[in-house]
Amino acid sequence: MCRFLGWFALALIADVLHVVVAAIALVGSVTGPHRLEELEQIAWLGPTAGCVCANVALAGPVLRRRRAERRDLRSLQALHDLVVPPAARTPDGTTLVLDPRWSWWPGFDTEDDLNSVMAEIHDGAGWLSPW
Predict the structure, then answer these.
(1) Which end of the chain is more exposed for a tag (fewer CB within 10 A), N or C?
(2) Cβ neighbours of 70 (radius 10 Å)
(3) Percent of the chain at pLDDT above 90?
(4) End-to-end Cα, the chain, rounded Å
(5) Which CA distances in Å does 72 have to 1, 6, 110?
(6) In whole angstroms, what is the distance from residue 65 CA to residue 62 CA?
């Protein structure tokens, strides 16, 4: 988490640097119309670098969480195949325990898949119980 805060701090530094460079170019324009024109031309690099750093800072934890959920889903799949009987599965090999939720990215939403697999494992363990 500290690494992502570092990226976010770098984004803020880049934005502050843009303000400083733009202010220097503005003050320099008082002395002459084209004196610090090059400095003004490169001032846009600060917010661009800040946007890239902020995106890395915000997307990093999300992608790390998704990778962990996919790893958990792969590790639970063997238990799911053992516990859930084949007769309870649909023709495509899945079972429907939780109603599917509408999502912008149905293949990207691993949290719902993980919840569904855990619920199916719980139901399957109940089917195996003699009581």
Answers:
(1) C
(2) 13
(3) 6
(4) 46
(5) 20, 28, 10
(6) 5
